[in-house]
Specification:
Blueprint (H helix, E strand, L loop, with lengths): L1 H28 L11 H10 L14 H9 L4 H22 L4 H9 L2 H5 L7 H16 L3 H10 L5 H14 L9 H23 L1 H10 L7 H9 L4 H15 L14 H23 L8 H13 L11 H12 L11
Length: 344
Amino acid sequence: MMVKKGNFAVVLFLILSVPFLVLVALPVLNGRFDFQFYMDSPTYHAAADQMELGRSLITVSSNYLGPVMIIKALGGSYALIYAFNVCLFLMTYRVVVRSFPVDRLRFVLVMCAAPLTFTSLFSVNKEIVAVFVSLLFVASYARNRPAWRWIAIGVAILARWQMVVALLIAAILLGPLNPLRRHRLLTLICLLAVISVAYPLLGLGVLEEVSAVADNRVDFQGSGLFPRFIQIQNHVGGYLLAFVPKAVHLFVGMVRRSDHLFEAEDVMNNTILWFQSLAQLTVLSAILFTRRLRLSSDVVYVAVLIAAVITLSPIFSTRYLLPVYALFAVALAMPRRALQPDGA
């Protein structure tokens, strides 16, 4: 019965997306009226028109490769992009329910509670790809399918190069080359320690371009915590101290910014991301309250490893952690007794 309810919830979710596609998404994307429910779609379409496929699409501060490839492959059609995103969403759902002992209905409800799950259906974006590769990667351990692992790592470049790095690190730390693989907390501390030394000594020059971008994109409003965390991580050993509070701030910090909640000129940043942050706060609270934050689970462990890489960025963007939200959704939908190592 729960299987049927879960599948029905997915079908209902997608049916409800069709009126939004026809009445809102397509008119907005075609420039008939202004309602910014998307993030970077116009930028990606402009890049697809102006740039050829090649290494120039991937730089330290940007990665247009995935969006441009999708746009070019689908002829720039918004309807086909929607169909592609729906297929990717259904593939993600299938991978999860076939790989983990999840309550399907609960998983669907948690995922659909995230506004970005809905808005990511209608335009080209990296988030839906990042969620797919993250869940496929973890499923490769649950199903003992090493090929899925490398497919996930390869496809991750279509999202962000940081996702490739995060999944490669996860594969190494979960593999036989890591002598501490059975001691996950110690492994995580060692990883953060290495990052804490390498980032200030080697990373500042490499990430200078990213930092320049961040000057215009980091959220300096409110308490100023995020730039303070960046200052801390720029010192040797700093990220070891800054990671947890910075990750939590990135995951839920926008909840504090409710003063512009219903201002129409920037619906994505003022409204959608606020509710996304609220959903993430709820899920994080549920994970902690139900004692599911267990590194013994591959699902939770990989979520934390992804967060360790993504949180290093000087750019404040809640949506970068959507893969972590999706992995937490799987953990919440699983029985607590099932949160054990999912594979070798």
